[in-house]
Design goal:
- By secondary structure, this protein is an alpha/beta fold.
- About 40% of the residues lie in helices and about 15% in strands.
- Strands 1-7-6-5-4-2-3 form a 7-stranded mixed β-sheet, sandwiched between helices. The protein has a 5-stranded mixed β-sheet with strand order 8-9-12-11-10.
- β2, α5 and β3 form a beta-alpha-beta unit.
- α3 runs parallel beside α10.
Length: about 400
């Protein structure tokens, strides 16, 4: 399998078939498993083999297929599937630190990630230092001997800053820290963060991996020692594992993720190029544009792919942004991304609402900023709709 190309891995990786030799992967909807003898039960609780299961919170054949497939795609040794993307972030961070430890994190984060760092870990005695993610000098200045984790979104939400995975990894490893990367916006199609030095990758599988708005899920990816050691111990005792049905949805989503994400990114670039410089816009943020501050990094880190999301800063602030949203005919107004349907979001009043005005200003989350997740609709239709909505925003 290691020699297969990614599209082949995404269709066949991790498959295990029952005695019926089904084509589509089976859903094992069971909370527990039966042992043939008391001795077998005892042995399994001491150490389970690779195809032996105890309880759905610990593992499941369907879940295992999803974990093996995404690990194969990432070029990692193992993965643990979680109930949601935030369960993945929480598990990855909580399993790596103790009171007295230090974390360095990029300041541009999703609101719930900030909550874990500021309101959960800090209260537990973990110190957190926030830095400007793209600025490697700030990472160098922030790490210490007791720094255990460097955490960041490889492409930030919603301002789409791109952070140098290899650069931060070198800095983190110089003090023995682990690098945990939230890779949602970069996607498992375009990013190869493990190869670039990251130790742990987290995804909200709810986004591109499902890609069709059906189910919650997440996944933590890394070395076998880490995944089946501290992470699995934390997750199975705190109950953050994924349901078998949701794992099956994610498993089937992986079969088409390469096709979907590449088509979405192609449309996103065309839309960004068309809208860039429009008189109704203050800024068009898209990493694939040559005007983007980290476009050179995109060429090396993501093979030139700017992702499936762009952000538009509309003249006139919140009122104009709301007019734009309400005038759209094709994209839906929601707070997800990476979906087959195009989705428009106003971060300042939804996903990042809990931030203070000062924090929003510091992160570039302006009152007129719209996060625009591009779906699988006809690109020409999306462009025409966006242009019409921009015109309406200025009336």
């Amino acid at each position: 399998m290691d020699d297969w190309k990614n599209r082949t891995k995404l269709v066949h990786g991790g498959i295990r078939r029952s005695q019926y030799n089904e084509v589509s992967e089976a859903i094992f909807l069971t909370q527990g498993f039966v042992y043939e003898t008391a001795e077998q039960a005892e042995a399994r609780f001491i150490e389970s083999g690779p195809d032996e299961f105890i309880y759905a919170r610990y593992g499941n054949p369907t879940v295992s297929m999803f974990e093996q497939r995404i690990a194969l795609l990432e070029g990692a040794e193992d993965a643990f599937a979680t109930a949601s993307g935030m369960a993945a972030v929480n598990g990855a961070l909580m399993s790596l630190v103790h009171a007295g430890d230090h974390i360095v994190s990029a300041k541009a984060l999703f609101g719930s990630c900030l909550h874990i760092l500021e309101n959960v870990l800090m209260k537990m005695g973990v110190e957190v230092t926030f830095v400007d993610g793209p600025n490697l000098d700030e990472w160098r200045a922030a790490v210490r001997e007791n720094t255990k984790v460097c955490f960041f979104e490889s492409m930030s939400n919603p301002t789409l800053e791109v952070i140098d995975v290899a650069g931060v990894s070198e800095i983190a490893h110089s003090v023995g820290a682990m690098v945990v990367v939230d890779n949602v916006f970069s996607t498992p199609v375009f990013s190869k963060a493990i190869d670039q030095g990251a130790d742990v990758i987290v995804y909200s599988a709810t986004k591109h991996i499902d890609g069709q708005g059906r189910a919650l899920g997440g996944v933590v990816i890394g070395s076998k020692d880490y995944i089946r050691g501290p992470l699995e111990t934390y997750m199975k005792h705190t109950g953050g594992s994924i349901s078998p049905f949701n794992a099956w949805v994610m498993l089937k989503g992986l079969e088409t993720i390469d096709l979907r994400v590449r088509a979405q990114a192609e449309s996103a670039l065309k839309i960004a190029q068309t809208l860039d410089g429009h008189p109704a816009l203050l800024r068009t943020l898209y990493p694939g544009l040559k005007s983007h501050a980290q476009n050179a990094l995109v060429q090396t880190q993501l093979d030139g792919n700017g992702g499936t999301v762009l952000s538009l800063d509309i003249k006139g602030g919140k009122d104009a942004a709301f007019k734009f949203l309400n005038a759209l005919q094709i994209p839906v107004i929601s707070n997800n991304l990476g979906d087959a349907k195009s989705i428009a979001t106003h971060p300042a009043t939804t996903t990042h609402q809990r931030l203070s005005d000062e924090q929003k200003e510091d992160l570039g989350i302006a009152p007129g900023l719209i996060r625009f997740s591009i779906g699988l609709e006809d690109c020409g239709d999306l462009i025409a709709d966006a242009l019409s909505a921009l015109e309406a925003s200025q009336v």
